[in-house]
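job 3f2a | input accepted
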Amino acid sequence: MRKGLLCIMIAIIFAITACSSGKSNETTGASSTTPSETSETPAANEPAADDKQLPRVAFVYIGVPGDGGWTYQHDQGRLMLEKELGIKATVVENVPEGADAERVFTELAQKNDIIFGTSFGYMDAMYNVAQKFPKVKFLHATGYKTAPNMSTYMGREYQSAYLVGLAAGKMTKNNQIGYVAAFPIPEVIYTINAFTLGAQSVNPDITVDVVWSNTWFDPTVERQAAVSLLDKGVDILAAYQDSPASLQAAAERDKFGIGNDSDMNKYAPDHYITNNVFNWGPYYVNAVKSIMDGTWKSESYWGTMKEGIVDIAPLGKNVPEDVKKLVEAKRQEILDGKFNVFNGPIFDQDGKQRLAEGEPLKDEDILSMTWFVKGIVGTVPK
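job 3f2a | predicted structure (382 res):
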């Protein structure tokens, strides 16, 4: 996502104060060091209805839409953009973070007006290229660096994570839940914390055992991590990667599982609870429209569930009706602005009180979170 390393946390605080799991530079999911362009070059000279040229738009993906998760959801957003605005975007898949990304962004900037980078690890590369092409608009998923021609965008997935945890908390039979975490960065940490708070809201005795895969998409490694948790006795398994490996491992043990990013029901329909989903389409449409009409300004966008950028997938067929009703009621409270996930009292896993009764956690503190809440088993690597 996509997401950064712990050494950049302080910078995040400054970024959110000034305006606002991205992928890490350690991504293992890229399947090629030679990116492949999968869409035709856009018809740059095709006029729009108002006789203005349609902007030339490009998307850069860390993986492929076939991952069934993160990249798939971004690609669905691209398809919505194309359908609504009549734009044929250029897509470049399997772009590793680092030097390759900077090369790809440079090449695209010579041919396009708008470029979307959908992995956190693209941040520095995109920022560097943005300085060289001030007339091109760059939009970066989950990062924190901005420029006059570069914005960031993300959704508050901790809101949906709380609901997923609520469902898991109602369905666990032994109060032991497992979580296969990706990288130890704030986005992953605050999502796991929100999930845990949701589970504990129905049963404070629940524990969430966390193991780190240090991957975004590596089904073999993620499956191994999942099995290690199942061997410890967890009866529900959640994960933060782009693959359904953990969900499938849980199903093979006749345990309930939770996916990530996109509706993963199809991978284990008899053992599926739900998961966080992103809906990027409306953001992509609105962003491009604002560029076309001249109202676009650089920003750090962190969209809410009410805005539709995050939500949960439909609950699985074997989730009891009372659980579905409870989750929907809490979801409505979030939509109505009546419930804040990170509202005190909140204690960390060492028993230290982080938030007093009724105190809300500030955005900059969420975005720089490096600690686990009470009830999580496992550590945040330093």
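job 3f2a | Residues 70-85 form the longest helix (16 residues).
job 3f2a | closed
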